[in-house]
Design brief:
The chain has helices at residues 22-28, 42-54, 62-78, 91-104, 124-129, 160-167, 180-192, 199-212, 263-270, 339-356, 399-409, 412-415; strands spanning 6-13, 34-37, 81-84, 111-116, 150-155, 172-175, 240-244, 249-252, 280-281, 286-288, 293-298, 301-305, 308-310, 315-335, 363-369, 387-396, 420-421, 431-442, 449-454. It is α+β, with helices and mostly antiparallel strands. It has two domains: 6-118 and 156-313, no CATH class; 325-434, Alpha-Beta Plaits (2-Layer Sandwich), CATH 3.30.70. Strands 11-12-8-7-1-2-3-6-4-19 form a ten-stranded mixed sheet, sandwiched between helices. Strands 5, 14, 15, 16, 17 and 18 form a six-stranded antiparallel sheet that branches. A three-stranded antiparallel sheet has the order 9-10-13, covered by helices on one side. A hairpin with a 4-residue loop joins strand 9 (280-281) and strand 10 (286-288). The longest helix is centred in the C-terminal third of the chain and has 18 residues, at 339-356.
């Protein structure tokens, strides 16, 4: 049932590690009804699984707790609801940590909803035995080829379970691996009473979510067309979606903040991480990005309308991560004169020494920063640059080969070309390579769980 004609949904984080003061700015610099924060990426889930395996109280985005402590008095006072996937692989523990924060600052009442059931890591065997092949959707490879090296497996749930948590009275909703777009669509479903077959309205919410999901990237950050035209990036205003019951959305930001919201900044964000623009597939709907109409509706205000939606597929996407060997990255800096020649010679010497020792690598990649790290073979050769940073990365299934690379890099300081610096960090260490395995699973095979608890 419709509660309001329009709502304001503010983006507070585009990824784990985004601008930490942005959530506070969003809830204090102007009116908003919802704050959404995206913390998860594919590789993040395996990191969180490792943390939880070492400590059952961990497995969520720890930075989120610091943000909640900063904004909680304000969101309670203003009745702003917070939605985030920062629950990671342990939303229950994340909820407990938030309750501890609430007690510490003297709150008497707080309702926190969690959405879980997306973590199927422990259920893989049973799911496969029931006919869910979980083949790599890009290569078609069978799961058994990497089964013993799996580190995480999470289903991308959508917006409806989040909307249900809001309906049950949650002030804060924590999810596991929900879709980025679902965080923004959920408040619209909750407030406007949109149904599962309101495809075009749902698609408008998906588009709004896609615009908000990267935080400041749609309000002037990383702007390719004319970045110098963006005012006051120091105090960039993160985007806000003003969503209306009929599916029309206005993208804006708080008055008095930096950044830029224009048709061009929105266009750049709309092109971010999409495949077929006519079929943007989510759990709720397939959105047709080719139908989007953008119109500058005022200063730092863009109207987004006319989005077409189609029925969803019968599948959820599954994000899995697995161990795929080891890597190491090392750097040395060579100074003028002949900096590039020295760096190239050092790279050649190191490669030959490793070859002489009998080591081989799946990848051995060299970049000369100041010359070709951005544009590779298209880069023009610089004329005697002041300095060149030699950066070398290796990858191998053989840990000893990767460790050997670290042992051979630092000796170049006194056994290679002169005028070298930048070795204070010591030899590079072998790190685990975490690879991505995307798959599909029928929606009937898994079920999201919604649970709301009060302080």
């Amino acid at each position: 049932m419709k509660q309001r004609d329009h709502i304001r949904i503010a983006s507070g984080q585009g990824y784990w590690g985004d601008l930490p003061q942005a959530p506070y700015w969003q809830v204090t610099k102007g009116p908003v009804d919802f704050l959404v924060m995206d913390y998860l990426a594919e590789v993040t889930m395996s990191i969180l699984q490792k943390q939880r395996s070492r400590d059952p109280r961990m497995g969520y985005a720890k930075d989120l707790i610091q943000v909640i402590e900063q904004i909680l008095p304000t969101v309670v006072e203003k009745n702003i609801k917070v939605i985030t996937n920062g629950g990671g692989v342990n939303p229950q523990a994340c909820r407990n940590a938030i309750f501890e924060v609430a007690k510490r600052i003297g709150l008497k009442k707080l309702s926190v909803g969690i959405v879980y059931g997306d973590d199927i890591f422990d259920d893989i065997g049973e799911l496969v035995s029931k006919g869910n092949e979980l083949r790599n959707m890009e290569t078609g490879d069978a799961l058994h080829s990497i089964r013993g090296r799996l580190q995480s497996a999470n289903v991308y749930f959508g917006a409806f379970p989040i909307a249900e948590a809001l309906r049950q009275g949650a002030d804060i909703v924590l999810t596991g691996r929900a879709t980025d777009t679902g965080l923004t669509l959920a408040p619209m479903i909750y407030e406007f009473g949109w149904k599962e077959d309101d495809y075009s309205k749902l698609a408008s919410g998906i588009v709004a979510g896609h615009i908000l999901e990267c935080g400041g990237q749609s309000s002037g950050g990383n702007f390719q067309k004319n970045w110098k035209s963006v005012p006051d990036l120091t105090n960039i205003g993160f985007p806000i979606a003003e969503a209306h019951y009929d599916g029309v959305v206005y993208i804006t930001k708080h008055d008095g903040t930096g950044g830029l919201v224009s048709v061009d900044t929105i266009k750049e964000q709309l092109l971010y991480e999409i495949g077929d623009p006519s079929e943007y597939i989510t759990p709720e709907v397939i959105a047709d990005f080719t139908s989007i109409r953008l119109e500058q509706a005022g200063e730092n205000r863009v109207k987004v309308s006319d989005i077409k939606g189609m029925p969803p597929t019968e599948f959820y996407k599954v994000s899995m991560a697995y161990s795929d060997g080891y890597y190491a990255i090392g750097t040395l800096t060579y100074g003028w004169p002949e900096a590039l020649e020295k760096a190239q010679a050092a790279d050649s010497i190191m490669r030959q020494r490793l070859k002489d020792l009998g080591f081989a690598y799946d990848e051995f990649h060299t970049e000369f920063l100041g010359y070709n790290s951005c544009h590779g073979p298209l880069s023009p050769v610089p004329v005697d640059p002041n300095e060149i940073l030699l950066r070398v990365a290796v990858r191998s299934k053989n840990r000893e080969a990767v460790e050997a690379f670290g042992r051979q890099l630092v000796p170049l300081v006194l056994t290679g070309p002169p005028t070298v610096t930048g070795f204070g960090a010591g030899r590079p260490k072998a790190q685990d390579v975490v690879a991505y395995w995307p798959a599909l699973i029928k929606k009937t095979a898994v079920k999201p769980v919604v649970e709301v608890a009060e302080l």
